[in-house]
Structures are given as C-alpha cells and as structure tokens.
Amino acid sequence: MTYYRLGDFVTDATRALTGQVHAVHGKTLTLVRPSGFLWEADADQCWKASAQERAGLTPGGTVRVISTARRRSS
Predict the structure, then answer these.
(1) Over 26-51, what HEC string results?
(2) Collapsed DSSP state (helix, strand, coil) of residue 57
(3) What CA–CA distance (Å, rounded) separates 57 from 2?
(4) How far apart are CA 40 and CA 20, in angstroms?
(5) How far apart are CA 29 and CA 1, in angstroms?
(6) Among 18, 7, 32, which residue's Cα sits nearest to residue 62?
(7) What is the spatial distance between Cα 41 and Cα 51, in angstroms, rounded to a whole number?
(8) How far apart are CA 8 and CA 46, in angstroms?
(9) In terms of CB atoms within 10 Å, which end of the chain has fewer, N or C?
C-alpha cells in the first residue's frame, strides 16, 4: 500500500480526477480540487500525479495540456 500525506497531489483512478490530499483516514483519502470540490477516494486506487496531471489543476496549465494534446485524424 502506498502512503500519502497532506498536500500530496494524486490521481484517483476511479473518477479519473487529480486532486490534492486534504485529509487521510486510514486507506481513505479526502481529495480537493482548486474549485473546492471534495471527494473521498481509496488510497489503493490512487497514484502520485505526474507533472502534467498537476498542471491540469491550474487554468494556465489546462490550456497548455490541451494545446499539446495529439489531434485526432478524421
């Protein structure tokens, strides 16, 4: 089992959302998005967020991530 601490940025595989660890209750993490949205996630279903996933939490980072995404061919 991976242990997370307050302030860590993780991605919740169940919801495909990245958030910051707001609280830890055993194997349950309370995660928060910059908007204030809170949710609980099982620590076993999370991984440390990559730099790109963390960048997606800021408006400027989101634009950068979207603009560098591969375009689908028709």
Answers:
(1) CCEEEEECCCCCEEEEEHHHEEECCH
(2) coil
(3) 22
(4) 11
(5) 13
(6) 18
(7) 20
(8) 11
(9) C
